[in-house]
Amino acid sequence: MDNLDIGAKIRTIRNRKKITIAQMCEGTGLSKGFISNVENNNTSPSISTLQTIAAYLDVPLPYLLLEKKEHMQVVKKEERTYSTMNTLKIEHISSKGGLWLRSVEFPPEASIGDAHAHEGVECHLVLEGKVLAEQGEDSVVLEKGDSFSWNASVPHTVKNVGTEKAVVLIAVYSNTELNDFF
């Protein structure tokens, strides 16, 4: 459990909630020395003991068991990266595991190119403009506020069919790396 750094999490939560070690001892029935050892990662508490601590601190037990890489990741707007594909401007908003979120700006008449397929599923929300979404025999024009989703293993394409730029928020989930796409 060393790579989980449970002790530091417990200490951080306790300090943020302005709870003293003495108060925690009283509330959990654990000794001051034991809590100190837990917070300094000098001992590995049982799941039952962790449940007692989590309940006292009013946090879910699974949170204490998350590895650092599994914690919330934050990307501030000014830290986002951008790329281009054809004439599209792609804003890389966030990603976690096999899920990623991008905002794609389509100039008038621009498209993602020829229909293509890849592993995974996609969900889209049209934020601005008018786009044509095509997959197989399905073809639909969507406008601001409309959404669509599909299994990405079937060839698909999206094109701006309006006279103004179109912006589409795209969430993709796949078990494989999608570095080739946006």
The CATH topology of the largest domain: Jelly Rolls
Major β-sheet annotation: 6 strands, antiparallel
Give start-end ranges of low-pLDDT stretches: none
Work out the number of β strands.
Answer: 9
Helix content: 10-25%
C-alpha geometry: elongated
Give the strand order, joined by hyphens, for the main sheet: 1-2-3-9-4-7
CATH level-1 class of the largest domain:
Mainly Beta
CATH homologous superfamily descriptor of the largest domain: Jelly Rolls
Q: C-alpha Rg, in Å?
A: 24 Å
Query: How far is it from the N-terminal to the C-terminal residue, by CA?
Result: 37 Å
Q: What is the CATH architecture annotation of the largest domain?
A: Sandwich
Helical run tally:
5
> Helix/strand/pairing class, anyone?
alpha+beta
Describe this structure in words.
The chain has 182 residues and is α+β, with helices and mostly antiparallel strands. The chain has two domains: 69 residues, Orthogonal Bundle (434 Repressor (Amino-terminal Domain)), CATH 1.10.260; 97 residues, Jelly Rolls (Sandwich). It has five helices and nine strands. The strands form two sheets. A six-stranded antiparallel beta sheet has the order 1-2-3-9-4-7, with no helix packed on it. Strand 1 and strand 2 form a beta hairpin. The mean pLDDT is 90.
How would you summarize the topology of this molecule?
Elements: H1 6-16, H2 21-28, H3 32-39, H4 47-57, H5 61-65, E1 81-85, E2 88-96, E3 99-106, E4 121-128, E5 130-135, E6 138-143, E7 147-151, E8 156-160, E9 166-173
Antiparallel strand pairs: 1-2, 2-3, 3-9, 4-7, 4-9, 5-6, 5-8
